[in-house]
Specification:
With 959 residues, the chain is an alpha+beta fold. Among the domains are: 348 residues, 3-Layer(aba) Sandwich (Kinesin); 65 residues, no CATH class. The longest helix has 262 residues. The chain is flat. The protein starts with 5 loop residues before the first strand and ends with a helix. The N terminus and C terminus are likely disordered. The chain binds adenosine-5'-triphosphate. The site of adenosine-5'-triphosphate has 19 residues, from helix 3 and strand 15. It comes from Caenorhabditis brenneri.
Length: 959
Amino acid sequence: MSSKKKTSEATSNLRVAVRVRPMNGTERSEKCSNIVKVDKVRNSVDLKSKPFGPFFRVYDSDTTQNEIYADLVSSQIKKVIAGFNCTVFAYGQTGTGKTFTMEGGRTDAKSSSDDPTTGIIPRAVEDIFEQLENSGCEEYSLRVSYVELYNEELFDLLASSDCEDRERLRIFDDPNKKGVIVSGVEEVPVRNRSDVYKLLQLGAEKRRTAATLMNMHSSRSHSLFMVNVVIRENTNSGEELVKQGKLNLVDLAGSENIGRSGAQGNRAKEAGSINQSLLTLGRVIRSLTTNAQHVPYRESKLTRLLQDSLGGSTITSLIATMSPSSSNFEESQSTLEYAMRAANIKNKPVCNTKVSKKTILKEYSDEIEKLRRDLRAAREKNGIFISEESHEEFQKNTEKVVELEQRLDCAVDGLRKFAEDFTHMDEQYKKLFERKEELEDRLRERLRDMAVKEKELADTNDKLDRHIEAIGVMHQAALKSYDQLLLSRDAAEEMETDIRAFWKKVDEMGNADDRNKEMVECFVEQMTSFVAKIASQSEALKNEATTKSESLVHEMVQNKLQIDSIAQEINGNSEEMQSTAFTTFQKAAELDKRVAEKMTVITEENRQKWDDVLKSCTDCYKAHSTRLDEFNKQLMDRLDEIKKQVSDFTEDVRPLITEIRNTTFDAVEKRVESSSANMTDVKTTCSTMAQQLKALLGQVEQLSVRVEENHEKQTIADQNSHESVLSALNSVENVVQSLEDMAEEQCDVNEIDEQAKSDLEGIDLDHETTVQEAREKAVEKELEAKEVMSTMVTESEANRKAAVKSFEAVSTKCAANSTLCQSVGEVIQMKCQESSKEITTILTNYAGATKADTNEATDAAGKIHLEYVNPAENVPPREIPKYTMSSDLSAPPEPDTLLGEEEDVVGSDEDELAKKKRRVTSYVRRDSLLDTTNIFLSPSTIRKRRENPIDEEDENIEN
Ligand SMILES: Nc1ncnc2c1ncn2[C@@H]1O[C@H](COP(=O)(O)OP(=O)(O)OP(=O)(O)O)[C@@H](O)[C@H]1O
């Protein structure tokens, strides 16, 4: 009611979410591209890479209806139940999914579980019911109203009247609140979930839709679905408090480009009206976000209806829907800008406080009374308007009367609804009370039952205590028996073990005796055969040894004879070697001597010849040089003479110059001829000298070959002198050659003659020096050769003497060895004969002794008589002694005697007790009987059986 006090929360921004629907068939067929990217991390949307946001939430085309509801709306339902007013509205371009988001995909759905495309409105109502039930709230009332705003006219979608004559609804400002009152709207009570689906279907049928180019079922109006929740609480003082919350779910008509949507006629008018109201909404949003002084709520009915949701005390969420397609770029951009702006709107949510029933009734009656008064006054006022001028005022007053009447109707209607709600909640309370009574009766009955059961339980506990006591006594007795049995059984076990060991030993001894007897018999047999074998083997050995020793002696005699002959041979050989060596050494000495002498002679001859050759060579060169000098001199004289004649002629007879020239030419020719002749002589002489030198060279080579053949050692020593001789001869040859060359050259030029002469002189000089050096080297080498020879002769003499000495020593040793061979051979022969005799004697003795031994062993083996005593004879029979039996042990007390009489037990309790009794009995029996009869069970087996659950034992016994 108007006078309800409210508690406020902190300021909060409008919660704006953006939802992008999937591409539709038209967009896909037109091959439009996706220009929208949803960033769920940053809660922003990129449109053609331009970012918008951040928003409260962003949902891509894959997001389900359920996800959006759970994420965005569910929390608001809690607030509604807590007493807040909440609004969720969808805004966006036509065909982008506002109706799909708010209402869902199907109109015939029966519940959200039946259809996953179910929208926010049905889910919200379902959720309200669920949350009310879960919160344990028993007294509540839900009313829904559903209106549409079409062409700036408000119509009730739940009114019973037909489509055509639907009554327009009026809106009044609520003087006490920031909102409006919709006069005459149906507020249909909803008692369960399915009611909502029916109402939605009814509303959807009435809502104005039409096919446009953008949407086959385009909503041509804005729709507002309102849920009013009234909750009653009863205080301890018996006061009734009422709490109210309201949920507005708004599906706006889509903003549209009339050109693109193809709207014409009525459709174009609708679109214009839709765009107009959306424009006003935009202006309101802008004013709210720019802190403008005036907010134009009153400019459209839409903004009047949403006044409290925009900048008021309502908790508001806006879902901006958009297409991903490039074809809707501009509309999408405008939607996102709109959403960005709306996100800045600040609301101050206020919680409606709980008001008592009395207060509400008083408020209603006060308001109705006031309205009646006002109405009366207005009607009375109408009665006094008589003049024409006051007609306008009359008109105004009439309107006021009508408004007051409607307000009064509203207030009365409100009171009626309140009374209805209360009646409904009273009914709920009555039902609750009845249920409570019923529950209390049941509780009392249960308590009575419980008292009886407690008594029975106490009795049973007593019995159980006695049972437990009895079981304890039996258990002690059984334990005692068990301990006794264990002791007896341990003793018996020990004895049994001893007896078994004894019998085992007796058996083992018998077996061992059998085996020993067999072994001794076998041994005697083996010994006998062994002795016989030994005897025969020793006889054979004796015979074989005799044969072998005789053959050995024979072989030794042969060997001795061979050694004798070898010794004699050594003797002969040593003598022969001695004489041969002597002769050889003598020959070698002589040879050495002869070689030395011969070498000396050859060397001497060689030197002599070499000297002669060199001397003749020197002489020859000297003579040649002299003759060359003379020739040169003659040549020069004659040239001087010619020169003189030529100069005389030139001076005396110039006209005869030609003749003189000819004469001179002739003279020159002659001189050249004579020079040629001289040259030929010189050449001949030179070639003769060369031949002589070559012959000498041949002799020298022969000599050197001989020297090489005679003595190899001398060759090494002479090698150096031979090489020097060869080099000297080479240089002589070179000189001869150069002399020949020079002689030829001299024919042409006097200067060359001069040069040749001086060269020749130089060569002569060199030659002499070389010859002299060669001579000196030859003398040196000869001395060296002689020295080597004498050293060699001395060494060979010494060697020879040493060799003779060693030969003598060797031959002496050979003779001694030969003698030793002979004597050793004789000793071997003698020893062999002796050994042979001894071996024969030993073997004879051994054979005799072996025979005696074997006879003795055979006798001894024959004398062995084995005695066999059976250990199993004369021993007590194999019987296990008898041990203490269960009858000798003190029997455990019977459980019946311990438990006493059970006459007072009846019915099923008797069965129960009998069962327990049986279990105890079986337990005792099992412990006493099983343990005593199976005396040879191992302690671990018995322990295991004791530890088995009684029920299992029971089963075994019963089986
Ligand atoms: N998220 C979605 N997933 C699947 N289909 C969708 C989705 N959103 C919208 N649609 C489909 O797109 C079509 C248009 O959606 P809807 O009628 O809800 O748009 P609108 O915004 O209410 O349009 P108008 O403003 O013209 O009434 C429908 O067929 C609907 O089923």
